[in-house]
Structure formats: C-alpha cells, structure tokens
Design goal:
This protein has helices at about 55-60, 115-120, 120-125, 130-150, 190-200, 235-255, 260-265, 285-295, 310-320, 370-375, 385-390, 405-415, and strands spanning about 15-25, 30-40, 40-50, 70-75, 85-95, 155, 160, 175, 180-185, 200-210, 225-230, 280, 320-325, 340, 340-345, 350-355, 355-365, 400-405. It is α+β, with helices and mostly antiparallel strands. The structure holds adenosine-5'-triphosphate and magnesium ion.
Length: about 450
C-alpha cells in the first residue's frame, strides 16, 4: 500500500489514500459513515447519497465489517467525527473482503470467552485493548534492550534443543532428536554462564523457555519468554542493581512511548514508573513478616519455599517491587553460590512484584570443585553436565545474573488477570492451538 496515509496523519484539506479494516458501518439513511481502522488509529469516511455517484455509495454501504478496503478522497474538518476529520471519498476498493459472520467481534462490543478469543487470535488482536497490550509488550522488550545497552551487554542466542535440563527434571519437555532423547530448554542458564567465560563477559538473551508445568495457573505458561542477564565480575548485589535498572527502564519506556495504549487500557492516569530503590528483604525477614500477617495456616520455617499466598501477603505488606535475598542454599539451584562463610546461606535472590515473583537470580558458583560438589549435594550427576562444568577448569571469572519472566513483567505492569493475555498464542496444558488441536 505504498503512498497511503495513516489514519492518524490525515489532516483537513489533504487529498489522501487510506487503507485498513472496516471497523464500523453506521447507516443513518441518506448519509452513512464507514470507520476505517489501521495500525495508527481510525478515520471516518462519509457517504452521502445526494453528493456522490450512486455506485460509490452502494459499494461503501456494501462492504462487510473487517474487510480490508482502500479509500481515496479529500479530508475535511468535522467536529462530530471521532478524530475531528472525515474523508469524503472519490473511490473505494475492497482489497480483501471479510465474511459477514465473524467468529468474534473486533469492535469489542460483544464479549467473547478466552478460548474463543485464542482460537481466533488474529481477529482478537484487532481489538484496541488487545492490540495495546502487544504494542506495550514490544516496547518493554525494546526498552529492556536499551537498558542492556546502557549496561554494555552483548545480545546472545543460545540453543533451545538441549541434552539436559537445568531447573528440575519433572518440568522437562522431552523430544526425539534423531532417535535420541533430548529436551526443550527450560532456561538459557548454563549457556549464558559459558558465554561469560567466553570473554563476552556481560550478555543478555531474550528468548523462549519451555516448562511442562504441572498445573494450569494464571501465571504459568508452558512456553514463556525469559529476559536473561549474566555478567562477569558482578556479585549478587550488582546483579540486583542491574535488574532494577532494566525493570525501571521498561516502565519508563512504556510511560514515554505508549501513552495512547495506556489510555486505551484505562491506565494512563495511574501508570507510575518506579523510582525508589526496591527494598531488599532477607528470606529470614520475609518468612517472619509472612508469619506475622497470619494469612497462612501453618507457620513458615527456615527451608520452606514461599507459598503463593505467602508471596501475596508479603507483597501487599511491602507494596512495591522488592527483592528477597539470602535464601537457604537447599532451595536454590546447584549453580547458585553460597555466601563464603556459610554453606547453608545462598547468594540467590528473587525480585517480586506485590502480586508474584518476576525474577530469580544470584551469584554463580565459579569454582570447579565447589560446583561439582554442589551437583552431587543436589543428587545430580555432574558427568551429565560435563560440557558445562569442564569450562570452569579453564578460567571462569566470578559472575552473577538473573532471569525476568517477560510475560509476568507485562502482566503485572498492566494488571492483567491471566498470563495468557500477555502472549500471542499461549501454550498451556489444554492448548496447543492454533495450529493443531490436542487429541485429549
Ligand atoms: P515459579 O516458582 O513462580 O513457578 P520459578 O521459580 O520456577 O517460578 P525460575 O526458574 O526462577 O521460575 O524462572 C525465572 C523467571 O521466569 C520466574 O521468576 C518467572 O518470572 C519466569 N517463569 C518461570 N517459569 C515460568 C512459566 N512457566 N511461565 C511464565 N513465566 C515463568
Ligand atoms: Mg524462581
């Protein structure tokens, strides 16, 4: 559609060609309005029986909603039009017709259930609010990339077909790789660490992670987007600083570039960019504060993982993004380093939004003997990870890093109820469609 003008750029006095989808047709008898929608917004086109060729009016009124049309005409000021401008057409061409029966209503006037929406996601995305979510998602990712650039990182892409898991066996998706068992990667953890040792030193990756989550929850997907960071010569506190920078820059980017989208979602007024330092609370303090809320039936003790209700109780108590530091080593993965003077206390941390965990990170164990001993302590066979461990024998600097769940960042930023709203084509226990349905 070379030479077309975007709806938002049409000004009074312009002779224009616009192209987009038929959002709405309002026939008032003798006069009719066709609202055309493109990626920039909407523009009204006026058809008037007394002023135009009958054939043009007929074609204008004959289009079906959601057809793709191309309109040539002249633009005039019109205070009653949604954007104060309307086009009086000289030509209308249906570029791609839509069938009159739509599986869902992109104008949003008729609500559809989530499964219907996901089965017809392309049409669902034409809704202003859904469209806005994915524009904001793109801005979060570009802002994160800008933040990584501030930090002097190199972007990497690591394999998604792997021979071993990193985050626990039950969540692995096995695949067949030329007759041998392989898996979809759960995390780029080990690869990004190896890239620190490669001399790239400070790296990030934005890519998919695959986890066969046991339950359907509103905050778990089986394919999610991980925003990973890893840096040589960083300890866990410096990694937390970097994490805070990326999160704040993502919020700031959305505030700066997505005013229209925030408005569409009804969030423009209340959208605040976090500026204060995120509180850093130790795990010990976290369990004490959760216990003090009285929200849990049983009191938490050292070594317990934080249950969802506990996270939520603490979140409303803290009421901002915050870190939980100094976790018991036994509930953090093998690659996390312990505090030097205490083998039970890890440098692992989580960063949470009041609603849920967004990030896990920590300083990594970079000393070969300690790393191998850590594998054995967690019941893992270090031989299986030889491709990873052996590189720790040849000059691996101390390093630290983290992973942000991209969809959780988007979901908490926008207050979405369900993580499925934050991804184009969610994969959950029931859904592997589009494109193919599971036979269950
Ligand atoms: P949770 O305990 O909430 O299931 P986790 O601790 O297993 O998460 P990590 O291995 O720490 O997850 O992964 C780092 C981040 O990736 C998490 O903090 C989260 O934001 C995101 N993440 C992990 N698993 C999923 C998933 N199944 N769906 C969406 N995001 C996920
Ligand atoms: Mg975690």
């Amino acid at each position: 559609m070379d030479g077309r003008t975007l709806a938002s750029a049409v000004g009074p006095g312009d002779t224009v060609t616009v192209a987009g989808w038929v959002h709405e047709i309002r026939d008032l008898g003798g006069i009719a309005f066709v609202i055309i929608r493109d990626r920039s917004g909407k523009i009204q086109v006026k058809f008037e029986e007394d002023e135009m060729e009958a054939d043009l009016v007929e074609r204008g009124l004959g289009v079906t909603r959601e057809s793709v049309v191309r309109v040539e005409g002249e633009a005039f000021e019109e205070p009653r039009a949604p954007t104060n401008v309307e086009i009086v057409p000289s030509e209308l061409e249906t570029v791609a017709p839509a069938e009159p029966e739509l599986p869902l209503d992109p104008s949003g006037k008729v609500d559809a259930e989530l499964p219907t929406r996901l089965d017809n996601r392309t049409l669902d995305l034409r809704k202003d609010e859904v469209h806005a979510v994915f524009q904001i998602r793109a801005t979060i990712l570009s802002s994160a990339r800008a933040a990584f650039d501030d930090l002097g990182c190199t972007e990497i892409n690591t394999p998604k077909i792997v021979a071993t898991g990193t985050e626990g066996g039950t969540e692995l998706f096995p695949i067949t790789y030329f007759g041998e068992e392989a898996f979809m990667n759960q995390s780029p953890q080990l690869f990004k660490q190896l890239m620190v040792g490669s001399g790239l030193e400070r790296v990030f990756e934005i890519g998919p992670i695959f986890r066969a989550e046991e339950h359907n929850t509103p905050r778990h997907l089986n394919e999610a987007t991980s925003i990973d960071f890893e840096s040589a010569f960083y300890d866990h506190t410096e990694a937390m600083d970097a994490c805070e920078h990326v999160i704040k820059r993502a919020y700031a980017g959305v505030k700066e570039s997505c005013h229209q989208e925030l408005e569409t979602l009804g969030l423009a007024e209340d959208f605040t960019v976090p500026t204060d330092e995120f509180p850093r609370i130790t795990y010990q303090e976290a369990i004490e504060r959760i216990n003090a809320t009285g929200e849990l039936e049983a009191q938490l003790v050292w070594g317990d993982d934080l249950p969802t209700e506990g996270e939520r109780a603490l979140g409303s108590d803290v009421d901002s993004h915050y870190f939980i530091t100094d976790w018991p080593s036994e509930i953090k993965p093998f690659y996390i380093k312990d505090h030097n003077d205490d083998s039970t206390l890890s440098t692992g941390f989580d960063m949470l939004h009041p609603r849920m965990e967004l990030v896990s990170g920590g300083q990594r164990e970079h000393r070969y003997e300690h790393l191998v001993a850590g594998f054995e302590a967690q019941g893992l066979n270090p031989d299986q990870f030889e491709y990873y461990t052996k590189m720790f024998k040849y000059g691996m600097p101390p390093h630290a890093g983290w992973a942000i769940g991209g969809e959780r960042l988007l979901m908490t930023m926008l207050g979405l109820d369900n993580i499925r709203e934050a991804v184009l084509f969610p994969r959950d226990r029931q859904r592997l469609s589009p494109w193919t349905h599971r036979n269950t």
